[in-house]
């Protein structure tokens, strides 16, 4: 059995676990009939597991390169070079997070989504065929790839004290 088939097999097991029996009525079935086991967001980039493994492989390669590079105790780029890159990165992050916050508020008011769903009625607002917040959640998910740049700046700046297991674990687990 190839690695890709194994990945698909585990992915189907996970999807089945989370989706079996959620809605017995076909009207509220979480996924359209044309896509058995996969929702409308499955076609989004980086959603299928095999596509999500590429950024993770790149991130792990960056980590290994960083460990080898920082072992020598030198800085790859000067502070004068790193500072403008970090400035642009931080500006993009602030803009992106601000956009996602404003968009979440618009979606909340547009669709009457409660902040704290305490009743069954509010929890049943989910529409698996046409998810209202899917694009926003996908953008949030993909923004975690951009967060990998934190590790890049640690590596090129030679800041060994900031390069920890917790940092790496956080970025990998938030993305997955």
From TrEMBL:
Pfam families: ELO. The chain crosses the membrane at residues 52-70, 82-102, 136-156. GO terms for molecular function: fatty acid elongase activity. It is found in: Membrane. It is a multi-pass membrane protein. GO terms for biological process: fatty acid elongation, monounsaturated fatty acid; fatty acid elongation, polyunsaturated fatty acid; fatty acid elongation, saturated fatty acid; sphingolipid biosynthetic process; very long-chain fatty acid biosynthetic process. The keyword Ubl conjugation does not apply. It catalyses: an acyl-CoA + malonyl-CoA + H(+) = a 3-oxoacyl-CoA + CO2 + CoA. Its EC number is 2.3.1.-. GO terms for cellular component: endoplasmic reticulum membrane. Belongs to the ELO family. This is Elongation of fatty acids protein. It comes from Reticulomyxa filosa.
